[in-house]
Amino acid sequence: MAANVSTAYLESLPAVPDWLNKGDNAWQLIAATLVALQGMPGLVILYGSIVKKKWAVNSAFMALYAFAAVLLLWVLVCYKMAFGEELLPFWGRGGFALGQGYLLRQGALPATTHLRKDGSVETAMTEPYYPMATLVYFQFTFAGVTLMLLAGAVLGRMNIRAWMSFVPLWLIFSYTVGAFSLWGGGFLYHWGVIDFAGGYVVHLSSGVAGFTAAYWVGPRMQCDKERFPPNNVLLALAGAGLLWMGWSGFNGGAPYAANIDASIAVLNTNICAATSLLMWTSLDVFYFGKPSVVGAIQGMITGLVCITPGAGVVQAWAAIVMGILAGSIPWFTMMILHKKSSLLQKVDDTLGVFHTHAVAGILGGTLTGLLAEPHLCDMVLPVKGSRGVVYGGTGGIQLLKQIVAALFVIGWNLVSTSIILLLIRIVIPLRMSDDELLIGDDAVHGEEAYALWGDGERYDESKHAGYSPKYQQTPTRSLIGETGRGGAVGV
């Protein structure tokens, strides 16, 4: 038996070159699939369930479109802009990631070789033990999920044609900049900023860009703002469950290998998510008198976002601390501060992505600067000796790096998102017409989420008025801040 196991890792050309590690390749493909499941079907189900019934189809479709559009553009030009050779300190040189010769070679991030001040190599170029095809697909899933998260801020009113134009432009001019700067070998990567799996690249950018987009697109109809109940809470919980379980691939795949740091990252991810969920639920019970499934989903997400920038570089006790803060600080900004802030009240962020992704992302990046453990940092970071404030030494400098990087991501996304939407607005209205907003899915897609009459036939008063009483909605608590709990579900 031992001989059979050992021969499984021997070179066998052409399918098994000497650099291929089947364990790493298998884990990375699994991790990529887990991340993809976060978006398709995770976010598609969550978005289609957490919104008002008349927007279920449109909300799910916006996420579905983003997932597909990002993949095609990713292999045509964007992968190399994010992880290829350096063009500018914050941007890679774009190009195809399609050729067989390119995709079958060993994975490599050519701009990641980190040099000391004297020019000698401190950390060699990142070269995982699997092919470029695996690396390209793994990184696509992060990009796809980022655009899907951003969509949550503009559900229920953004013109679908404007959204279809926005997705490729934002991917090119915003996402690839953050990804190259922090992951692909850009200036923040070599400076030593820690963003283990996307607290800044994915969550802070989607939260800030989503909030900015919500401002330029404009608000929903007043009736939708005042009353926006989820059409299926249990199905929303199913989508949230896929999001949580998929996060093990999100953070566990970040080391690019099935190594011990991947194990730490997966454990910390789940610890922080559970702690944050319990903290958010406890605050709901204390403040509102009862627990909420929607609140539990919010707390789960803020915990997952908060741990992401430091999942593989903090200890398990630190993950608990991060979970407590992730379940309380975004809770405060969403439930209390949102009602009191005139700025937040002016911007109609449908699902509260500013609170659950921007606030939680900044919180996670800052806490990483405080709690990053030196031994774990040396396993995965290009700048050796990195550490958080609590471990002394250069910890104070690390915290400063984290703050500066957050400001860069915020500033770039504010400007790039605004420019993209203002250019689109010249040729395509950003907001749907009032008639479309009033009707919803049937006006935009000619489809509705649920068939209330046999064989998919929709209610027609002229045909069915004598058959059954006209459908009337019953009052229910809003997800937005006008009643009771005061916060949109943050996804």
TrEMBL record:
InterPro entries, alphabetized: Ammonium/urea_transptr (IPR029020), Ammonium_transpt (IPR001905), Ammonium_transpt_CS (IPR018047), NH4_transpt_AmtB-like_dom (IPR024041), RhesusRHD (IPR002229)
Compartments in which it is found: Cell membrane; Membrane
Highest taxon, organism lineage: Eukaryota
Pfam families: Ammonium_transp
Chief location category: membrane
Membrane topology field: Multi-pass membrane protein
Protein name listed in UniProt: Ammonium transporter
One Gene Ontology cellular component: plasma membrane
Organism encoding this protein: Papaver somniferum
Family: Belongs to the ammonia transporter channel (TC 1.A.11.2) family.
MF (Gene Ontology): ammonium channel activity
Domain Ammonium transporter AmtB-like: 26-450
Entry keyword annotation includes Transport: yes
UniProt keywords, alphabetically: Ammonia transport, Membrane, Transmembrane, Transmembrane helix, Transport
Chain segments annotated as transmembrane: 26-48, 60-82, 135-155, 167-191, 197-218, 230-250, 262-281, 293-311, 317-338, 350-372, 403-424
